[in-house]
Amino acid sequence: MLDWVLDLLFPPKCPACGRYTERRDTWCDSCFAGLVKPHRLPLDAEMYSLFDGGVWALGVYEAGLRDMLRQLKYDGRKGLLPGLHRYMAAGLRQLPLAAGNGRQKGLRCNKSRADVDVSRGNVLAVPVPLHPDRLKERGFNQSELLFREPLAALDIPLQGALVRCRATTPQFGLTAAERSRNLQGAFALADGGEIAGKKVIIVDDIMTTGATLQECALVLKEAGAASLMGIVAASGRK
């Protein structure tokens, strides 16, 4: 009844174009079709050597997608998750992930450095962690909320194998060099993290310079990760 009243008083609109939609907090079919743009991001030499599976963005950090990710992250609007999960799932299905449960039979992948074979159960995803103080303040890790359900549909477990062992200055507004210095030594392997010999996918909401993913990758490599791949919901890099 409440949803019916809300739809009557405030008809749902697409966050990108403003057209009326059937479902609240999601895009119209036209905008959605242009929103999902999985692409491999350009990396510098150091990141390229760490991420043998590449770093991938599911779309471009702009317009309606940017607004929805910000509203989830900073305003706690978890009602946006069904629409965002729809976007995440559509993007993940287009990445070079070879599923072992048969649910991706329509996905065709050319074998390359970027392919991640999940059929042997040796693949796991690791979210970029928040510092405990930030997690308590926010109440959730946005990367976990975005990725857990869509990855579970692909039989890829999400494991909190990293911890943020010191608070850092917010990255917004810092230069690339400042971002790198700000994050040095900020991450460590969590107790019980089983990484050795695993193919690890590091997941985060957005990527700007890549400093966060790089610091996480260094810890996981040292812990014995067999290979690394990065996936972010969106990035301004193209």
Produce the secondary structure layout:
Blueprint: H1 2-9, H2 29-35, E1 39-40, H3 45-50, E2 55-57, H4 63-75, H5 81-92, E3 97-98, E4 116-117, E5 123-127, H6 132-138, H7 142-152, E6 162-164, H8 176-183, E7 187-189, E8 199-207, H9 211-222, E9 227-235
Parallel strand pairs: 2-9, 3-4, 5-8, 8-9
Antiparallel strand pairs: 1-2, 6-7
Helix pairs in contact: 5-7
Could you characterize what this model shows?
The chain is of the alpha/beta class and 238 residues long. 35% of the residues lie in helices and 16% in strands. The protein has 9 helices and 9 strands. It has helices at residues 2-9, 29-35, 45-50, 63-75, 81-92, 132-138, 142-152, 176-183, 211-222; strands at 39-40, 55-57, 97-98, 116-117, 123-127, 162-164, 187-189, 199-207, 227-235. The strands form 3 sheets. A 5-stranded mixed sheet has the order 1-2-9-8-5, with helices on both faces. Strands 3-4 form a two-stranded parallel sheet. Strands 6-7 form a two-stranded antiparallel sheet. Helix 5 crosses helix 7.
